[in-house]
Amino acid sequence: MSRASCAAPRSTRMIEPGKPLLVLLSAGADSVCLLHLAQSLRADVSVLHVNYGLRPSADADEAFCRSLFPDLIVERVELPTRGNLQALAREARYELAERHAEGDYATGHTLSDQAETVLMRLCSSPGRKGLLGMAPRRGRLIRPLLGMTRDETRAYCREHGLAWREDPTNADTSFTRARVRHELLPLLERISPGAERTIAETARLLRDEAEALDALLPETDSLEEIAALPPALSRLVLRRMAGAPIRTDEVLAMAGRGGTVTVDVGQGLRAVIEYGCVRFDTGPEPPPEPLAVGAPGTVRFGGWEVEVSAPATVRSWQPGDRVRTRAGTKSLQDLFTDRKIPREQRARVPVVEVDGEVKCVGDLTHEEGFTARRLT
After folding, report:
1. 3-212: what CATH class?
2. At a CB cut-off of 8 Å and minimum separation 6, what does 284 contact?
3. Residue 301's beta-bridge partner residues?
4. Are 165 and 57 in contact (CB under 8 A)?
5. pLDDT by 10s per residue, the chain, length 376
């Protein structure tokens, strides 16, 4: 039995007999191999082909895919003329797959693609995330061929008499991936035969270790506690909270300082440190528009549900607002400070006003007949 035949069953355990599986078919050898394997393993297969119309051969590719699977689902997509076409095409393909798939959907990414991805990310993005490569599963997206090289998928196709079509853009070294594929990886293979497989295997091991390490990281938003950890763990906790490979040194330098501080950390995010806790966002959200409620009932105010027993105005707080308490009245600014409500969240807390008097302030205080509860 050929190496391709031996490798295929080991690398396709995510394909389950009888389970719905949408195969993304491009007409290339990798996706043709994937389709044949999915059918051989008796998955309940459906097939999606996305025609971007970018190449003269696009319609011929579509016709070829239809010859392989007559019930082919075809989507024609017009991409913007500016921007990263490959990234835009990928996003469009996955959005369509999410729409059409009854269960999981599969791409033909191979071990060779994995090695290329790791090298590309290593050159452009510091930190461990780039070294983890593509996940075998991300939500409903699965990549069953990450255990097979590109050479092995072609060998599989030849062994089973399967034809495929070549994408000429894969040889265009004006694209970064093509330069890595045709220039960098061959050089590494000459230096150390098997480099491609070694790089991909390293990514697999690092991903396993990263999942284990993430499970052991403390769950805290206290910047003082995070800063007290060993530096490597501090970075990992902050990057997990942000969900991106952010700059962490400036955030950690804020530990122990009072007041409210915001720090730009890259990736379009900022860290907000307030009351000793850190959170990440993309910037302040505008407050909801005021609502005039003409009769008793329930209304939505941003992420809140507000119930009123009389005509009222539901709005954001304003400087000078005061609310009755058992001890007299208190300014809303003092109320927010006492309850440690972050400054940038205060404008989204609903204030219910009736005839100039504040009757309710979110879930912090309220008079009878006026309540507010968070929806999220």
Report:
1. alpha beta
2. 344, 347
3. 304
4. yes
5. 344 444 454 556 899 999 999 999 999 999 999 999 999 999 999 999 999 888 888 999 999 999 999 999 999 988 877 667 778 888 999 999 999 999 999 999 999 999 999 999 888 777 777 788 999 999 999 999 999 999 999 999 999 999 999 988 888 887 888 999 999 999 999 999 999 999 999 999 999 988 888 888 899 999 999 999 999 899 999 988 998 888 899 899 999 887 788 889 888 899 999 888 999 988 777 889 999 999 999 999 999 999 999 999 999 999 899 999 887 899 999 999 888 888 878 999 999 999 999 999 999 999 999 999 998 6
DSSP code, position 340: T
Beta-bridge partners for 261: 273
The most distant pair of C-alpha atoms in the chain lies apart, rounded to whole Å, by 87
Residue 230, amino acid = P
Q: What's at 221, amino acid-wise?
A: D
| Residue spans per domain, the chain | 3-212, 232-281, 291-374
User: From its phi and psi, is residue 276 left (phi > 0), alpha (psi between -120 and 50) or beta?
Assistant: left
Amino acid, single-letter form, for residue 356: G
Dihedral sign, Cα of residue 228, residue 230, residue 234, residue 240: negative
Do 214 and 240 form a contact (C-beta atoms < 8 A)?
Answer: yes
Q: Which two tokens stand for residue 224?
A: 């003082």
Partnered with residue 370 across adjacent β-strands are: 308
